[in-house]
């Protein structure tokens, strides 16, 4: 796999010529001092050892060219792209680099999980507060409805009692008036006389 590289004080650019493939067939792995490019449909790969640590930048593929941009951790020009090490040293260096990459990925995963757990716990607590407020509101509304119903019931009972008392008082007053009127007519007698062929009751007083 042919490639070329370019640099400035802040970046390294790797450009690979890969013909007749698609971007979803490209697997690019960037560790701090290693770049590995896998072309899945062609079953070949290229590993490049870097002189100093980098961070992954932009990656794009088009017109049979894959371009990988890397950000230098320490700005400055490199005298060469790769270090001058033995094969065994390079192999161990790659293993260490990908181990650090894996640890970084796991740390980020754990951080996301912790943040999600904290968010879920916070959301749960807030939901409990909302539920408690709603329950308190419903409870107060029910208590108010019960209080209003009891008050209405007492008012109705009071009105009915007053109505019955008024009836009794009115009845007693009517009876008193009747007795008073009848008392004025003590010794009242009546006898019938025939007036114009009709018998009439005529009162007499003793």
UniProtKB/TrEMBL annotation:
Transmembrane segments: none annotated. Residues 132-151 are annotated as: Disordered. Coiled coil: none annotated. Residues 1-82 form the CS domain. One of its GO terms (biological process) is cilium movement. PANTHER family: DYNEIN ASSEMBLY FACTOR 4, AXONEMAL, DYNEIN AXONEMAL ASSEMBLY FACTOR 4. This is CS domain-containing protein. It comes from Paramecium tetraurelia.
């Amino acid at each position: 796999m042919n490639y070329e590289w370019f640099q400035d004080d802040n970046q390294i650019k790797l450009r690979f010529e890969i013909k007749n493939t698609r971007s979803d067939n490209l697997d690019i792995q960037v560790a701090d001092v290693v770049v590995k490019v896998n072309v899945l449909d062609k079953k070949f790969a290229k590993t490049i050892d870097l002189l100093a640590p980098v961070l992954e930048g932009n990656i794009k593929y088009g017109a049979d060219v894959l371009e990988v941009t890397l950000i230098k951790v320490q700005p400055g020009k490199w005298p060469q792209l790769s270090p001058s090490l033995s094969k065994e040293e390079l192999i161990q260096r790659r293993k260490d680099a990908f181990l650090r990459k894996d640890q970084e990925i796991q740390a980020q995963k754990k951080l996301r999980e912790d943040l999600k757990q904290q968010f879920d716990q916070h959301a749960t607590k807030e939901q409990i507060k909302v539920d408690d407020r709603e329950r308190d509101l419903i409870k107060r509304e029910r208590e108010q409805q019960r209080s209003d119903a009891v008050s209405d019931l007492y008012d109705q009972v009071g009105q009915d009692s007053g109505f019955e008392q008024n009836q009794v008082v009115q009845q007693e007053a009517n009876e008193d008036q009747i007795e008073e009127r009848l008392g004025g007519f003590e010794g009242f007698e009546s006898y019938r006389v025939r007036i114009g062929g009709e018998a009439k009751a005529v009162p007499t007083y003793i």
